[in-house]
Write a structure and sequence with these properties.
Layout: H1 13-20, H2 24-59, H3 63-78, H4 81-104, E1 113-114, E2 117-118, H5 133-166, H6 169-177, H7 182-212, H8 224-232, H9 247-277
Antiparallel strand pairs: 1-2
Helix pairs in contact: 2-3, 2-5, 2-8, 3-5, 4-5, 5-7, 6-7, 7-9, 8-9
Length: 287
């Protein structure tokens, strides 16, 4: 904040806005864009790992593993996403605190479930009440990231499973005819060829993941939606920088941000798809 911002009542015009947009809350708003980008950067690889594992499980010859893969993808696909986004963090948080309670407070005899309340000893709280604020924020972000990964991992599993099935069997048979082992055929032909069929679905999934990041607000993470609502709302003279309801401007800025994100992603995936299709004798390659 600039030196002349000490007394907001003496400011007007450009000086007022220069002080208003450099307050601590606005700096937290700017940092929250990093939170969204960090979520995408961490979640996307985890989603791909879960998706590939789910797709492989569905193709497994071991029936229990195949059933597990089918249950995972079908349950997540059949339940509204918002239910999982709200259920997973709560369930994980309570599971962690339950285990910590059993380890750290073995002498406590009162039941953890007391009616509708979930009560654990103070030492089992996660994070501890004495922990700094950044620990609480990091823990909430971690739970949210797991929820996103589980939901979108199931969709990625369906996409990759379909892509694997779309690879022409003749290509796999040709590899085997040239003396390749089953493992070599899978990694050198099957997996490499499936990306041509998987990329359109994965690119759509990436777009949906971008558009789902505002759900962080519902999970208690102070993201860009939280700060846009907090800063844009009507501020009376009780505040240092009073202003009318400016939420339309803040959310309009978020609209532009997401449009730029999706536009850039479309161009990125179009380039990758062009390179994958180059010289490929597949339906995706065109004529």
């Amino acid at each position: 904040m600039f030196g002349y911002c000490a007394d907001p009542d003496t400011l007007d015009g450009v000086r007022w806005f220069s002080c208003y947009f450099t307050t601590g809350k606005h700096q937290a708003f700017y940092a929250s864009f990093g939170t969204v980008l960090l979520l995408l950067a961490i979640t996307a690889p985890v989603v791909m790992v879960l998706g590939f594992a789910g797709a492989m499980a569905r193709r497994s010859g071991f029936a229990p593993l195949r059933w597990l893969g089918q249950i995972y993808t079908n349950v997540v696909r059949g339940v509204p996403d918002i239910i999982f986004f709200l259920f997973v963090p709560i369930a994980m948080d309570q599971a962690i605190e339950f285990m910590r309670h059993k380890i750290k407070c073995p002498d406590v005899t009162e039941p953890i479930r007391q009616g509708s309340d979930f009560v654990v000893c103070t030492a089992a709280k996660m994070p501890l009440g004495s922990s700094p604020q950044w620990v609480h924020e990091a823990y909430g972000f971690f739970l949210a990231m797991i929820a996103f990964a589980i939901v979108f991992g199931a969709f990625a599993a369906n996409t990759l499973h379909g892509a694997m099935n779309a690879v022409p069997k003749s290509q796999l048979e040709t590899g085997a005819a040239f003396g390749m082992s089953e493992r070599q055929v899978f990694w050198r032909i099957h997996v490499k060829q499936m990306w041509v069929y998987a990329l359109p679905g994965l690119s759509n999934l990436w777009m949906i993941l971008i558009k789902a990041t505002p759900l962080l607000f519902l999970l208690g993470v102070e993201d860009i939606v939280y700060w846009a609502r907090e800063l844009g709302g009507f501020k009376t003279t009780r505040y240092d920088y009073p202003h009318p309801d400016w939420r339309v401007y803040y959310f309009g800025f978020l609209l532009i941000f997401y449009l730029l994100m999706t536009w850039g992603s479309e161009r990125f995936f179009a380039r990758i798809m062009k390179r994958l299709n180059h010289g490929q004798a597949t339906v995706g390659a065109g004529s």
